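@channel sequence for tomorrow's demo:
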Amino acid sequence: MTFRTAFSSASILLSMALASVGVCGFAQAQSQPPIKILVGAPAGGTTDTMARALAQMLGTQLGRTVVVENRPGAGGNLAADAVAKATPDGNTLLMSFTSHAINASLYPSLPFDPVKDFTPLTMVSTLPSLLVAHPKVPANNVKELIALAKAKPGQMNFAIGALGSSLHMAGDAFKMKSGAYIVNIPYRGTAPAVQDLLAGQVDLMFAAVGNVQSHIKAGKLKALGVTSTKRLPAYPDVPTIGESLPGYESSAWFGLFGPARMSPELVRRLADAARVAVQSPEVRRRIENEGATPVGNSPEEFSRFVESEILRWRVVVQYAGAKPE
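structure tokens (generated this afternoon):
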């Protein structure tokens, strides 16, 4: 046997061995069930969009298939309950939102504990909203609005897209801090609320940027303030509400949770993969297209944040006397 023949034979055997290892590894990965991210909101909404923006890149980081499953209902509680009761093996996760903290006080009894039954992994993003008014409202900023509402108690109103939502609570937090009496007008969904606002049937609304930006541009609505602590780059001339009402802030947030009792190693692996995914250019771009800001903090930071949010919204829910739909 010549050296060339022997070398070729050895190369073929080595290639076959490496291929065998690769096939086995691939087969092992394929034999694992997909990781499911449950979303307690309908497809097409912001929470669903955040989950789908994250899923593919998270799967790439973990070498697993990640799918999104929508389980809307009860303000996100149906999906949360399923994750709370899931096996803590990392195969069932939850993309939740601000209502996770609000529901702790809004619902008189829950089938799960919003803190003890979950493992916070990372906050994916935050999303501020805008306080918008119909052009007929004779106020062009938050200071003028508060003065007007106090001069006409109970004569102005807020359109509420969903009772108990973060936007509902944003309005009640505004009333609590300002001392203004503004009536809530509930709707079954954001779309009909925006339509009545455009028609001048209602005066005011807290709305996600994406739901009203075209109407602001067209002059059909006017933006009075933004709920975040900093002005939005897209609206540099719109002050934060906190500039006129110190201490006011109310941004929606979206975060990834697992069930409780996950091993520390699994928590770290999932959290690290999620944070890398959130900071990837593709995912950042999709999040920013929603008007949101990518975050990607640690499990410890996210856990402290969730607990502080539960306490913060409890005060607002008690003030408003809010009830779930």
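heads up for whoever presents: Residues 1-29 have pLDDT under 50 and may be disordered.
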